[in-house]
Amino acid sequence: MTAAKPSHLGCRNRTNTPTTFRSISSTPVRHDGELAERCDRNIVSSPFEPIDPESSWGQKPLPDFVMEKWKEHPDDLAIFDGSTGASRTFSDHYQDAAGIAGSLRHEMGIDDESGRSCVCLFAPNHVDYLPVTLAVGLCGAKLTPVNPLYKANELQIVLDKSQSSVLIAHESKIAVALEAASNVQCVKHVLVMTQDGEEVSLPGGLERLESIKRHPHSFDTTADAVHSAATTYPYLMPYSSGTTGLPKGVCLSHANLTANLLQIEVVEKSRWKRTDGLFSPLPFFHIYGMTASMMYCGWKRSPIYTMSGKFDLELMLEMIQDHRPATAHLVPPIILALAKSPLVDQYDLSSLQTIMSGASPLGADTDRTVQNRIGCQVKQAWGMSELSPIGTFSPSSNIKEGSVGPVVSNTLGKIIDGNGKSLGPNQDGELIIKGPQVMMEYHNEPEKTNECLSSSGWLRTGDLAYYDEDGYFYITDRIKELIKVRGYQVAPAELEEMLLSHNDVNDVAVIQIPDERSGELPLAYIVLKDGCDAKDDPETTKSNIYEWVKERVAPYKRIDGGIIFVDSIPKSASGKILRRILRDELAEQMKA
User: Fold this and answer.
1) To the nearest whole number, what is the mean pLDDT of the chain?
2) Is the pLDDT of residue 58 over 70?
3) Which domains occur in the chain, in start order?
């Protein structure tokens, strides 16, 4: 299944009422994804100028697109890491990407031009993250970026599902990487990213990334097979829980990503100056940090200021004061800190003109407080991994409080009810998106793909939303069961599957509980096994279960929302957990 073709998309000047299009499909309903095909009314188009499919995004592979003008400003700063002091120029990036590509192809067998080869990148925001990403694309392979907080069992699942043959891991993650790689058959090579290329002692058989950067057969043009198939050739494959269930590989083509960069550009070009710079502590493994921050800055030849270490508010304020970027890409928990922390008053943040918020909804009160305190505009965008990631974006010239903006160029949106009927303005329903940035499919999961993606390219997002008379969208809730902790995705099914392997747990359901600092936290409802001793001391049992989970998951997946022991878990006749019942009960309890 491929992304929607641009010729199907309208992009017209908005009037006071949403544009209605002709019938989209007369095919019978076949699966859940086809809910989006049931009604052709109230389809909202974009107010932004269209991107031209005949120019770049449908024709050129992403690495060629991003790197094409790097030789014009070779000595300009490309990236600075405030945690380590390391930096790179665009000349460094260009040479490194070409050399790493040569080594991957000629020394490690990443020369498959069918899109089957995969490289896994397991690292924080290293200054070489972008050239590694582009090098994999130059070889015609897929890249799977992985959260560096993952434990070995979590990484092992991704390695196995993606069938990655090369694992590139940061030196601080070598023990985890080697444990995970030893339990799968697919990994043939493990490369190590050192702090800034320094010599370090490595276990036998491992090679430093630095040592392969100057390969004699380096190359800077993407494999020929990609040039003729940019719209259908897979490139980036992050793992996402989608609307429900366990994490799945999101197949994004070269054209998906290039189109999204151009869609961002249409919104941002009037205010973005190449030399102004961007501050973004967002993790590059996350699609928001990967595309909107790292790749966009790379393509625009703008410096990006980031952190490879644990987020530090004081360091962030110091970096903004010293480097004076005009834009910051942040998430609501960090913006909340800007609203409340007394540290903010100690630093000069006057260079900031715009803060873009994404990954989860931002409260209107926090939005206003930060704008008044710092004196810059705060605007929201909305998206998901399946959208490369941007689906809606607030224009700087007309920001509406609480809105994530209209759909971006060449994109259609609509709100549907449970029967697939498209709703008019100010009516809540599920947000459905169609555009050139919509993913190709979930990797090797046709049934899961069909559940959310229709045959003509409409994506069910799993988000509850509405739009106003001007076509601005507002996210109100989630239909999907995904939990968002500080912008990170937590799949309830993943935690439930793990908890069911605990000796004292008979049944379990995990939902989200609101949290001011983190947005949401996982909360577990657990049914203990009959007759187990754990029932005699419930508080100790809760503590033991919490610590047991803590040892096995990344920090943001911990059950920090609490554990509640119950007699039974509500389920449907087919055995599906009815999490909405638990969420409704929790909401009533919190209200009371």
Assistant:
1) 87
2) no
3) 6-48+407-478 (2.30.38.10), 62-374 (3.40.50.12780), 483-591 (3.30.300.30)
